[in-house]
Write a structure and sequence with these properties.
Radius of gyration: 29 Å
Shape: globular
Strand content: under 5%
Order of helices and strands: HHHHHHHHHHHEEHHHHHHHHHHH
Strand order of the largest sheet: 1-2
Length: about 525
């Protein structure tokens, strides 16, 4: 009370300029307090956005990605993910088996078509689909369920035009392409017929894989297992029925297998759509087409485009090595084919681990949990390297037994065993490169993986040329294959060591905090 009186008396005794000056200072103090309160409120809201683990919007699956032990979470997701990959590979093998029963011309006719179909599936599922998976997981990690739900519509918006473009391209280029591959006569007619049928439904292939990617991005890998395995149970009896005929109906020949595959993709697409728009999971896509923007689609296509380069270069590497080894004769080609079969099995195993690693990384980056994302990357690398390296070492140790499954020809046994002896110990680098490829999709830093994949292809080309130039034994091509795997894993590693793509959100947050502090001062 006395202090108030003293202050009042002192204020009354002040001259007018001094009084105005004090009022100005008081105004600035009040403004500063209001500004500090507003900034604190913004910081609190921003913190909630950066750390959505505290938000009520986080569902149980996303909480698992953000909070449960990393190794156990990856393993829990890896088993169904690898199951889906394995079943899809087996579906292709079953299709080849049924078509082969119709004759040699049929087998020769569909042989050049299958790799192209596999390439479309790889790009749709692992490349463009990988971009969708990681984007959905990142959005859910940030607590933005509405934004994540819109990617069901983005999947349609991307899949339909890409499917139509695939159909148009194969309709225009397919016949001449198969002819340039050396296919002629009745085999060429079968190739064109099968290709025209399967690629007429390319949109279904794209939609199946992109909608599956949306589901996988939520951390739910059980639904894809149900859809793929359920579809396989329908496909296995349907394919021979359409190829050979059944119940009094004449079969369609090899093209019947293509029709059966489209039925598989068609029912699978409907199943994923029913799951998403039926709102059986965390995503809640609207029934009306929302206003879609170009930015998110371009972000997915950027990651998917760079991933497609990795997928294409991998297939290119295998084709190059096959061509060089084929110069050594039929026995060399058969031995390499028997040995490289094991390499093909590495893909579903490596992606079985790498896919979940990308999901875990994306969710934690969205939640601002940078250290956990980095830790998940290293754990995934260790798991994939260990698994693929153990397979390679076992193959190198029991190489004669593995090759003996396919052939007892002495030349085939020798060349196939030599392949596993030289390349098997480097399988671990393939696992390393593949998981880093998936991590690159999550961090949106694909440059190193693209460089590593292209370098692998270059090593195969140059190595094979040197072997031919020196007229060395064909088995020296296998050294180039081993060095290529080494480069694929090693050159993709620096971004993880340097934490490239992991620190971006954290640095941006720190920059915003510094700006707020300066304003408060």
């Amino acid at each position: 009370m006395q202090a108030s009186c003293v202050l009042s008396c002192q204020t009354g005794e002040l001259s007018r300029p001094e009084n105005c000056s004090q009022q100005s200072r008081k105004t600035r103090v009040e403004f500063s307090r209001v500004a500090v309160a507003a900034i604190a409120s913004c910081q609190h809201k921003d913190a909630n956005r950066r750390h959505p683990a505290q938000s009520a919007e986080i569902d149980s699956r996303t909480q698992m990605l953000l909070e449960q032990p990393i190794a156990a979470t990856i393993l829990r997701l890896a088993i169904p993910n690898a199951t889906v990959m394995t079943v899809q590979i087996l579906i292709g093998l079953v299709e080849v088996y049924f078509v082969s029963r119709t004759g040699v011309d049929a087998l020769a006719g569909v042989a050049p078509v299958f790799p192209l179909v596999s390439l479309v599936v790889a790009v749709a599922q692992g490349a463009i689909g990988g971009g969708i998976v990681t984007t959905v997981a990142r959005a859910l990690g940030a607590g933005r369920i509405g934004a994540a739900s819109e990617y069901a519509w983005y999947a349609l918006a991307i899949g339909v035009p890409l499917g139509l473009a695939t159909t148009a391209a194969m309709h225009a280029l397919g016949p001449s392409l198969y002819g340039q591959m050396g296919i002629s006569g009745n085999a060429l007619e079968i190739a064109v017929s099968y290709s025209s049928t399967i690629f007429a439904g390319a949109t279904l292939i794209w939609l199946f894989n992109l909608l599956m990617a949306v589901v996988r991005g939520t951390g739910n890998l059980q639904v894809p297992v149900i859809v793929v395995c359920g579809g396989a149970l329908i496909l296995v009896p349907l394919s021979p029925a359409l190829i050979f005929g059944a119940f009094g109906y004449q079969g369609l020949g090899p093209s019947g297998g293509a029709v059966a595959m489209l039925v598989f993709y068609g029912f699978g697409t409907l199943a994923y759509a029913a799951y998403l728009w039926g709102r059986f999971g965390v995503l809640q896509p609207t029934f009306r087409l929302p206003k879609l923007s170009l930015g998110p689609a371009l972000a997915v296509l950027r990651v998917g485009g760079m991933s497609a380069i990795v997928s294409a270069s991998t297939n290119l590497t295998l084709a190059i090595v096959t061509a060089y080894v084929g110069m050594g004769g039929v026995e060399a080609l058969a031995g390499y084919g028997a040995g490289s079969r094991l390499e093909f099995l590495l893909v579903p195993l490596a992606y079985g681990i790498g896919g979940p690693v990308g999901i875990v990384i994306s969710a934690n980056l969205g939640a601002g949990k940078i250290e956990r994302a980095v830790k998940a990357s290293w754990i995934g690398v260790l798991m994939a390297c260990t698994l693929t390296e153990l397979i390679g070492l076992a193959a190198a140790a029991f190489r004669q037994q593995w090759i003996g499954i396919f052939s007892q020809d002495p030349s085939v046994l020798r060349l196939g065993a030599e392949y596993l002896h030289r390349v098997g110990p480097f399988f671990g680098f393939f696992g390393l490169g593949y998981v880093l490829y998936c991590a690159g999709q999550a961090t949106r830093r694909m440059e190193a993986s693209v460089l590593a994949a292209l370098l692998r292809a270059v090593i195969a080309v140059v190595g094979g040329y040197v072997v031919v130039w020196l007229k060395a034994d064909v088995t020296w091509n296998f050294v180039a294959v081993a060095l290529g795997m080494f480069a694929f894993g090693l050159f993709a590693l620096p971004p993880l060591i340097n934490r490239a793509g992991y620190e971006g959100d954290q640095r941006k947050s720190s920059h915003n905090q510094r700006e707020h502090a300066e304003l408060s001062d």
